[in-house]
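hey can u run this one w/ zinc ion bound, need the structure tokens asap thx
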Amino acid sequence: MAESKANEGTDQSKALEKRYVSLARKIILHYRVKVPRETSLRMCKACMNLLVPGKNCRVRKASSGFLLYICECGSSNKLFLLKSKPSTAKPAG
Ligand SMILES: [Zn+2]
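ok here u go:
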């Protein structure tokens, strides 16, 4: 729901987007719900914005193996990328 409001881009939709994100954070903290890392990274904890890459945040990939989400307010979140495991399947034959 917050994503569709973020895509509208009007002042009222930005206010609603912030409201939805702050409500979601309140629910997550109160009921201790496990949220996927990618979802929690898309919420800015400083300004309660929904981070939409290309609209209000920048995504940078560092050589040390993490993604950096930089919000328009200046705060940043890091997402460490996991190295893919080598396949364990044995070759046929
Ligand atoms: Zn922010």
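The chain has one domain: 2-80. anyway lmk if its weird
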